[in-house]
Write a structure and sequence with these properties.
This protein has four helices and ten strands; from the N terminus they run ββαββαββαββαββ. It has about 190 residues and is an alpha+beta fold. It comes from Pacificitalea manganoxidans. InterPro entries: Acetalactate_synth_ssu, Acetolactate_synth/TF_NikR_C, Acetolactate_synth_ssu_C, ACT-like_dom_sf, ACT_dom, AHAS_ACT, AHAS_small-like_ACT. Keywords: Amino-acid biosynthesis, Branched-chain amino acid biosynthesis, Transferase.
Length: about 190
Amino acid sequence: MAALNISKGSSRHSAYDLRDPNSEVIEAHTLAVVVDNEAGVLARVIGLFSGRGYNIESLTVAETDHHGHLSRITIVTRGTPAIIEQIKAQLGRLVPVHEVHDLTVEGPSVERELALLKVQGTDEKRVEALRLADIFRANAVDSTLESFVFELTGTPEKIDAFADLMRPLGLVEIARTGVAALARGN
């Protein structure tokens, strides 16, 4: 699955949002967008966000229907309820878009992310990194005498927690896929 993670953790809001920041709650929403799998579609979706000053916290995309040539884009963004509604409406008006679902409000959903984390260290730090990896159910997918590469799947919060614990042990690099999400049940 091809994936891209853009601007993780940024606290900027839209340059066009002139409201009192205390008047409405800013919340994260996970949007699932089904689009035609053709050149330029992803650029148009991203352009909608950047052109209006909306931030994308996570973005994943892959073809999900080879026969129908459809792809699914999963976007995590933040905004007030009004801004989220505006984003959904604008996405729905794009010609290559077939469906827009706000998984955050449509009911329970499952969100997962994959991360690869490189940790360098020796002696006690190496042993502690392995112990923590076991607790988090991270797999060592590469090992040298000086480093490990761990593979971890879970919620973004789980990956953040693991990375925070690995930093003092020698975390030197991290690659994340971005959130993939599906609604639960029917």
